[in-house]
Amino acid sequence: MLLKDIVSKLSINPIGEIGGLDVSGIGSLKAAKENEISFAAGHKYIKQLLETKACAVIMDYESLKSELPSDVKFAILDSKNPYLSFAEATQIFKSVSDEKNKIPSDNFEGKYFIGKTSKKGENTLIYPGVFIGEDSSIGADCRIMPNVHIGDNVIIGNNVLIYPNVTIYDNSKIGNNCIIHAGAVIGSDGFGFARSKSGYVKIIHTGYAELEDNVEIGANTTIDRGAVDFTRIGAGTKIDNLVQIAHNVIIGKNCVIAAQTGIAGSTEIGDNVTMGGQVGIAGHIEVGNNVMIAAQSGVSGNINDGEIISGSPAFSIKEWRNSVVLFKKLPELYKKLKEISKTKG
After folding, report:
1. What are the tens digits of pLDDT across the range 297-314?
2. 181 a catalytic residue
């Protein structure tokens, strides 16, 4: 692609000559080739920035210009939010790559199974080895990759990308523009058993799982169906790999949940919540809007809007940081207490 076309699509301000520069892709500051663009997220990358071979670099020019020589060898693509501009640039290159690699669906006819009462939309590509049950509907412009299982009465919106070996159970609902990565399971039974004198009696889960529009689900993440109602992931939410969402959990809009997090049943998460890796959240509690939960936190009670918490059990991150400092000093404090006690004795 021509750099000027990329600049036009990103609505960023070029500083320096971009002329007829031809760009083949995106690379890191360290590894970018002479026909690739890169980005600098801040001052800590200044050394790499001065050594990069990239033909153009996305950056916040105002914050870095005092550290740049006047004769930089790359074009500067000025952005107030370089990370966002970088993300948008990756979208541009992906759409070009997808167009080049499109395979005519006629090549796959007869190599996948789709139920007689199910239907797929225009320009939807279904790869070999896919199974689609009865009464299911797949929208337009979807890509369903090899060995995906889609059960009965599943509704999938438009422009959905489902990677290999995903399993979508009966009655699940997938919105528009969703991405589901390899090995994810949507709509499996929740972990529900009633104890009897002779053992455990399984609770049959008759609900469903729903992903609203623009949701992304990481590899090997599992989202259980509701026991009687539904489990719902709100629009715009992004979930990392190896996350467990239990039955009847409701997650709000535009949340970000990092890897190895587990959320127990019937918990409600508000909008714009951020969770670090390995967070554990107990069942039947409420987490408010705009909450931030640090990695490896254990949440056992309700959290109010806007709180930032850490620790296990989790509490205010400011108090937690003070507690960590004190915790590290406990051996020293204990030693002093023993010395005081000996002196007084």
Report:
1. 999 999 999 999 999 899
2. no
